[in-house]
């Protein structure tokens, strides 16, 4: 063997690890990274949603237009004074009062790229939407690849992309909510977030004690599977263990997470509260699909007159539930420009509502009232799209890691094992690795064993409980926040 020749066992060890971790998925990931680098600066789906869908913004009237409409002559002495203050670096705005009932006609303009790139949170909005699209393309390519070449020992890299999307969406929602806790003028917003957080905490506690024969979140089976797998694993390592934390403690932390997530969804729900009632009904249908007596039992157990079998099989019902989530969230994305235009129309509505008020208002206050609507466009877009992205990608991870199928009508989903850890010795391949004594092979073996042990602990049953409940709760919180916002807009917004 030549001095520079790599030992065959080291090559085998490295190849085994690369095959287990990456495989052809690495090619898909590298291609998508190249697409992001080359295509990203030239095309942005997020920018297209704002600038190429015909959104119209309202322009606030200038001081000269307001003076002309209110018949206010320009004060030359005041103008000179303002010019002097501008030299000293102070506010040089020529402030004057106009009647609130002044008939002001707002001019309109199409939203362009130059208009939005300077808006607050535009970068976060663009990155979230564009990265979500790239992650979806990676997921679709991986699903197509998996159709012909099932992933056995490989790590599903598309799940890492989806996890990054979920983390980024939560980070953005958290950042937007933190803004309501800053400043002295946000007392009402802070109180609303805290109160709604405790309300969702209480609701989640009640949900977690509901029998799974009624609400099919599969947390009980997930806990039992993880408890058994973890105990078996620790026992094989020579460690004494009674299993993970108690069920009550775990459910308490889950309830706290639910309360925080509900608080994060509060103001996005209030923002999009003017949405059409048909879309709310769609969200209701998605939530009901987890309530067992009125969904699964009704469609997969009950036999109607004139039939010899239920309408659907369990696998078909699982596929319908996943497809319902995907279709509902995709529909919300498609209708996003209409909702954003409805938000931009608030500027016109504010001007019209002010005409029915008595008294006077300064030109600066009136201009700020109109300009603020467009200034917060990207904030509103994030509050609209972030919950949608979160629900959609949690549903994707629920499907993939829970080993469900999009085509359960035609293909049976294999049953999952509660604890797949073998009680016997390691597999022949692992034993072969253990007999090698080189440092390279030992490192590769340890890494491979760690990965395999992780897979054995976090089984499909665990993922079904974790992501099943997370997906349902996000859909429920989204629906509840939107419904509360709709009630508020209908009965209290005019007060």
TrEMBL record:
Top-level taxon: Eukaryota
GO cellular component: a single term: membrane
Record region (Disordered): 75-96
Topology of this chain in the membrane: Multi-pass membrane protein
UniProt KW keywords: Glycoprotein, Membrane, Transmembrane, Transmembrane helix
Annotated localization: Membrane
Transmembrane segments: 20-40, 127-146, 158-181, 193-210, 248-273, 322-340, 373-396, 465-488
Biased composition annotated in UniProt, kind: Low complexity: 84-93
Similarity comment: Belongs to the TMEM161 family.
PANTHER family according to UniProt: EMEI, RE42071P
Official protein name in the record: Transmembrane protein 161B
Organism: Aromia moschata
């Amino acid at each position: 063997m030549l001095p520079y020749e790599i030992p065959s066992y080291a090559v085998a060890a490295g190849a085994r690890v690369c095959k287990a971790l990456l495989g052809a998925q690495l090619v898909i990931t590298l291609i998508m990274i190249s697409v992001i680098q080359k295509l990203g600066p030239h095309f942005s789906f997020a920018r297209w949603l704002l600038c190429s869908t015909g959104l119209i913004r309202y322009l606030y009237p200038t001081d000269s237009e307001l003076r002309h409409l209110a018949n206010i002559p320009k004060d030359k002495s005041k103008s000179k004074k303002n010019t002097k203050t501008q030299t000293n670096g102070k506010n040089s705005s020529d402030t004057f009062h106009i009647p609130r009932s002044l008939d002001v006609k707002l001019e309109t303009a199409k939203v362009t790229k130059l208009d939005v790139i300077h808006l607050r949170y535009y970068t976060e909005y663009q990155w979230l939407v564009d990265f979500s699209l790239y992650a979806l393309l990676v997921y679709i390519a991986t699903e197509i690849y998996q159709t012909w070449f099932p992933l056995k020992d490989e790590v599903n890299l598309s799940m890492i992309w989806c996890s990054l999307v979920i983390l980024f969406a939560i980070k953005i929602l958290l950042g937007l909510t933190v803004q309501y806790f800053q400043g002295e003028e946000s007392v009402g917003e802070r109180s609303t977030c805290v109160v709604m957080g405790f309300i969702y905490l209480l609701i989640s506690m009640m949900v977690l004690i509901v029998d799974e024969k009624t609400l099919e979140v599969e947390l009980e089976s997930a806990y039992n599977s993880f408890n058994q797998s973890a105990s078996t694993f620790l026992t094989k390592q020579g460690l004494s263990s009674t299993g993970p934390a108690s069920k009550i403690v775990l459910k308490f932390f889950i309830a706290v997470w639910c309360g925080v997530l509900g608080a994060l969804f509060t103001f996005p729900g209030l923002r999009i509260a003017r949405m059409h009632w048909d879309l709310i009904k769609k969200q209701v249908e998605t939530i009901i699909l987890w309530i067992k007596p009125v969904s699964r039992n009704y469609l997969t157990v009950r036999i109607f007159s004139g039939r010899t079998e239920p309408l659907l099989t369990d696998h078909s019902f699982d596929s319908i539930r996943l497809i319902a989530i995907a279709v509902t969230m995709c529909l919300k994305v498609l209708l996003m420009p209409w909702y954003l235009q409805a938000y931009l129309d608030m500027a016109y509505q504010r001007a019209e509502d002010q005409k029915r008020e008595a008294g006077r208002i300064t030109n600066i206050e009136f201009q700020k009232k109109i300009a603020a609507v467009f200034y917060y466009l990207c904030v509103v877009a994030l509050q609209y799209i972030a919950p949608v992205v979160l629900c959609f990608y949690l549903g994707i991870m629920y499907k993939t890691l829970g080993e469900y199928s999009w085509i359960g009508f035609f293909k049976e989903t294999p049953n999952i094992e509660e604890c797949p850890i073998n009680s016997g010795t390691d597999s022949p391949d692992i034993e072969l690795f253990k007999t090698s004594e080189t440092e390279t092979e030992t490192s590769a073996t340890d890494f491979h064993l760690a990965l395999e042990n992780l897979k054995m602990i976090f089984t499909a049953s665990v993922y079904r409980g974790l992501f099943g409940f997370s997906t349902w709760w996000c859909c429920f919180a989204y629906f509840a926040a939107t419904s509360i916002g709709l009630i508020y807009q209908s009965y209290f917004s005019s007060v």
